[in-house]
Structures are given as C-alpha cells and as structure tokens.
Amino acid sequence: MIEFWLAAGLLLLIALSFLLIPVLRGRRAQREEDRTALNVALYQERLAELQAQFEDGVLNPQQFEDGRAEAARELLADTEGVGPARVSSLGKALPLLAAVMVPVLGLGLYLHFGASDKVELTAEFSQPPQSLEDMVSRLERAAAAQPESAEGWYFLGRAYMAQNRPADAARVFERSAALAGRQPQLLGQWAQAQYFADNKQWSEKTQALTDEALRADPKEVTSLGLLGIAAFEDKRFAEAIGYWQRLMNELPEGDQARAALQGGIEKAREQLLASGAKIETAPQAKSLASIKVSVDLADAAKATVLPGDSVFIFARAVSGPPAPLAVKRVTVADLPITVELGDVDAMMPQLKLSNFPEVILMARVSRAGQPTAGEWVGRSQPMASSTRELQQLTIDSPDKQ
C-alpha cells in the first residue's frame, strides 16, 4: 500500500509541475522586464544631462552627439537577449489555486470512485494468514469489497463452517447460490450449513435443497452424505446405508473419507441386525479405471521444442464427447515420463474413464499452454479403458488439427 501512495504522490508532483513552472517562469520574466525598465530610465536621465550640458556650452555639438551614441550603445548592451514583454491574463492567484485544488480533487475522486480497499486486500492476501480468524476477517472484507463475486461468498461460507458458525455459513451460501446459479455443489453446502444451524434437526428447507441438488446431479457428494447422516439420526438405517454406499461409489480409492463412511455403514448394519431386520449385501464400490502411459519425444520434435513448453497428456473417448476424460500437464523438460490417467483426473464427474469402454491416449506439446492446439502431438490406437498394461506413447507428428 505504501508503494501505491508513493507512486500516486509522484504523479501528483508531475501534474503540479505543469502548473507551477509557468508561474516561476513568469516571475523570472517579470525580473527581466523590471531591469529593462530601469535601464531605459537611466538612458533617459543620461540624455537629459547631455542636453543640459550642451545648452550650457559645456559640450560642443560633436561631443553631444558622441555622448548620445555612447548612451544608446550602453542601453542596447544592457537589454540584449531580453524577450518581448509577456502578457498574462491568468495572474498568479489562479495557477496557485489550481495547484492546491488538483491534488485535493484527485484524492477526493479516488477515495469516492477508486479501489484503495481492493489494493490493500490484494497486498494483504499476498501474505499467508496468521490464524483462522485472520483468514475469515480477510474473506469478509473481500466479500464486502466485491459483493457480486460468488466465489468470495462461497469461500467465506467454507471458512464460517470451519469456525463452527453454520448459521452465518448458510446465509452466505444462499448469497453465493443466488449469484452463481443454483449449482448442485452450492446447494449441497447450503443444505449442510442449514442442517447444523438448525441443531441437526431435519427441516423442509433442508430436504428441498438436497432434493434440488440431487435432481441436478445424482452424484452430488455433500447431499448424499448429509442425507445419510439425517437418516441414521432418524433411525432409518437402511436408507443411511443406501446414501452412504452411493457416496462411497463416488469417492476415489485412498480418500480419507472412505474409512469414516465405511465405519458409519457398519454401525448402521449393526443397528439393523439388532432390530432383527434382514440386510441385503450392499453393492461394492465400482473400481476406478486407470491407465499408465510412458510419454517421450521423437527426435524430430526434440529439435524444435523448448524445455518450458507445456505437454498435455490425456485420454479421450473413442465414441463420445470430444472433451478429455483425464488430463495431466507436464513440461518438455520432464520427458520422458510415466503418468497414470484415471477417474481421479476427470475434469467433470460425468466424464470419467470408467464410463466409456474404449479410449485413445494423446500427448500434445503446446508452447502457448493451450491443451487444444500446439506444435507436436502423439496418438495411440484405441484401447479398452480397463487396460492395465503400461502404454508407450511417442510425440512424433506435427499438430495440424
């Protein structure tokens, strides 16, 4: 923030110079004009003396003319280099008044229309927060400075949940959903905050939010987890198992939440057994598809690429949407490299590797950092998405799109 005000002050000094320099020049010109007037007065006084001496007979006509010529030469020497008299209609008061008003008016306009608060926030966000309270305070000020930013309200809601302030979180999630559209993920977060704000009492509002979220996205994880919790608390253990099992199917292997979910499912089964109910074997979570691929450059490509060029490695469905199913980004300097493309790398939940039977592997070098266009590309033959063998992929063809 100090750097900003220093820069603003420097610009104001430059602006003031355009107003004050003419005033200073005017004072210098006035001094020149005063000196010229004095020299003219002295010249006229000298001529009067010569005229008096001539009339009194002290000087003869030749001496009188020589004296007049000498006085004229002295006057010309003293006034040589002096420009014509300056004519000014502004005077001194107006430029000085403008010199005072320019910075005052500029500062007032900036404080009213400017973004000093955003500049300060940007500088503050460049430093890591010292505590959760510090982070929440920053997010609150960021949301106030940019009230139309759905992302700002969303992150503030997550911070409120971390502070165990679900009522405040529900309020800002509602604001975020109003700005960004009623996206399933936002509705799920809003429903979760509302549930805890109501002291874990299920309400019609919470039910409506989760229903809307799952209609838009049947795999929305927050809503599935929340419905499982509500069903378990209401002793509807079979429903809790169903919701949690659906959630398990969406979580990648190794996710820490899987262990907690599995524990909840086991407790629900124990409660069902204790009540004498029969338990149907829950379907196992669908295994995640994953393909390992080793990527290298052909000699022809090595001669033209740069170490910092981006390399996009991705899988695309043989029959399906053109969007990549899984993507990894490296650089030319990382090659050769072996990566794993799988469901965990999906760009969208509905576009997973396991959802398509056949895929093609591709790798593209793009100096501009664009995954859709570049200089060199390599393609594999179609293969099953369940392939487990290591695949070799060489970037060997000019990318002609």
UniProtKB/TrEMBL annotation:
<feature type="region of interest" description="Disordered">
    <location>
        <begin position="373"/>
        <end position="401"/>
    </location>
</feature>
<dbReference type="InterPro" id="IPR017560">
    <property type="entry name" value="Cyt_c_biogenesis_CcmI"/>
</dbReference>
<dbReference type="InterPro" id="IPR051263">
    <property type="entry name" value="C-type_cytochrome_biogenesis"/>
</dbReference>
<feature type="transmembrane region" description="Helical">
    <location>
        <begin position="93"/>
        <end position="113"/>
    </location>
</feature>
<dbReference type="InterPro" id="IPR011990">
    <property type="entry name" value="TPR-like_helical_dom_sf"/>
</dbReference>
<dbReference type="Pfam" id="PF23914">
    <property type="entry name" value="TPR_CcmH_CycH"/>
</dbReference>
<feature type="compositionally biased region" description="Polar residues">
    <location>
        <begin position="382"/>
        <end position="395"/>
    </location>
</feature>
<dbReference type="InterPro" id="IPR056412">
    <property type="entry name" value="Ig_CycH"/>
</dbReference>
<protein>
    <submittedName>
        <fullName>C-type cytochrome biogenesis protein CcmI</fullName>
    </submittedName>
</protein>
<keyword id="KW-1133">Transmembrane helix</keyword>
<keyword id="KW-0201">Cytochrome c-type biogenesis</keyword>
<dbReference type="InterPro" id="IPR056413">
    <property type="entry name" value="TPR_CcmH_CycH"/>
</dbReference>
<feature type="transmembrane region" description="Helical">
    <location>
        <begin position="6"/>
        <end position="24"/>
    </location>
</feature>
<dbReference type="InterPro" id="IPR019734">
    <property type="entry name" value="TPR_rpt"/>
</dbReference>
<feature type="domain" description="Cytochrome c-type biogenesis protein H TPR">
    <location>
        <begin position="139"/>
        <end position="257"/>
    </location>
</feature>
<keyword id="KW-0677">Repeat</keyword>
<keyword id="KW-0472">Membrane</keyword>
<keyword id="KW-0812">Transmembrane</keyword>
<keyword id="KW-0802">TPR repeat</keyword>
<dbReference type="Pfam" id="PF23892">
    <property type="entry name" value="Ig_CycH"/>
</dbReference>
<feature type="domain" description="Cytochrome c-type biogenesis protein H Ig-like">
    <location>
        <begin position="291"/>
        <end position="396"/>
    </location>
</feature>
